[in-house]
Amino acid sequence: ETGVTQSPTHLIKTRGQQVTLRCSSQSGHNTVSWYQQALGQGPQFIFQYYREEENGRGNFPPRFSGLQFPNYSSELNVNALELDDSALYLCASSTGGPNTGELFFGEGSRLTVL
Amino acid sequence: DAKTTQPPSMDCAEGRAANLPCNHSTISGNEYVYWYRQIHSQGPQYIIHGLKNNETNEMASLIITEDRKSSTLILPHATLRDTAVYYCIVRGGDYGQNFVFGPGTRLSVLP
């Protein structure tokens, strides 16, 4: 148990739709990161939020966006869904900063786009 | 791209030590070596990390070579529950740097 919870655990959408995934961070963690994990691959960094602002972004298009709230919970929004967006989406919280940056991952939200 | 290379798969007998190697020949002076593992259908789990000294915790030991170009994760007494994909990651100490996961090593612990 990492104290990071994600919802929903599974969902199915069709191409062109929009999706919102939610993450509740571990208590006291002010940094949240989102990762996309395609089948058989390692997680790929999407972006990171610190104190409600984006603080780093991977190679993902603008239709991937996020929010972090004052209680440090977070949302990942994906617009105009494509088939290749089918993946496990992982949220991870941390305290940030050097040498204290180990990530605590949730169990993920598995998105299937048809 | 990941800064590390790992063998794609390894087997280990239950009860024996599992030694997982990782090469990171381009590591910089302020970059740490992190190890995570991912059991099927779960989120990755932090195992251990280090800068240049060997580290040990309740889960594993991390041995980093003197030139820091490679490291080995040691699970001293592997159990069936240690079957997972193990990721070796190099990450800077600067704030905001993300973790770059490669494909990892799939460790199978055999009875």
Notes on the structure:
The complex is a heterodimer of chains A (114) and B (111). Chain A has 114 residues and is mostly beta strands. Chain A has no helices and eleven strands. Chain A is 0% helix and 50% strand. The mean pLDDT of chain B is 91. Chain B has no helices and nine strands. Chain B is 0% helix and 47% strand. Chain B starts with 8 loop residues before the first strand and ends with a strand. In chain B, β6 and β7 form a beta hairpin. The interface between A and B is medium-sized, with 28 and 26 residues.
Chain-wise SSE layout:
The complex is a heterodimer of chains A (114) and B (111).
Chain A: E1 5-7, E2 10-13, E3 19-24, E4 31-37, E5 44-50, E6 53-57, E7 64-68, E8 74-78, E9 87-94, E10 104-105, E11 109-113
Chain B: E1 9-13, E2 18-23, E3 31-38, E4 45-50, E5 55-56, E6 61-64, E7 70-75, E8 84-92, E9 105-110
Parallel strand pairs in B: 1-9
Antiparallel strand pairs in B: 2-7, 3-4, 3-8, 5-6, 6-7, 8-9
Brief characterization of the structure:
The complex is a heterodimer of chains A (114) and B (111). Chain A has strands at 5-7, 10-13, 19-24, 31-37, 44-50, 53-57, 64-68, 74-78, 87-94, 104-105, 109-113.
Shape of chain A: globular
Q: From the helix content, strand content and strand pairing of chain B, which structural class follows? A: mainly beta
Q: What is the count of β-strands of chain B?
A: 9
Task: Name the beta content range of chain B.
Answer: over 45%
Q: Which two chains form the greatest contact, residue counts included? A: A-B, 28 and 26 residues
Residue runs with pLDDT of under 50 for 5 or more positions of chain A: none
How many individual helices of chain B? 0
Summarize the biggest pleated sheet of chain A.
7 strands, mixed
Mean of residue pLDDT values of chain B: 91
Backbone CA Rg of chain A = 13 Å
**Distance linking N and C termini of chain A:** 32 Å
What is the CA–CA distance across the termini of chain B? 35 Å
Give the C-alpha Rg of chain B.
Answer: 13 Å
Order of helices and strands of chain A: EEEEEEEEEEE
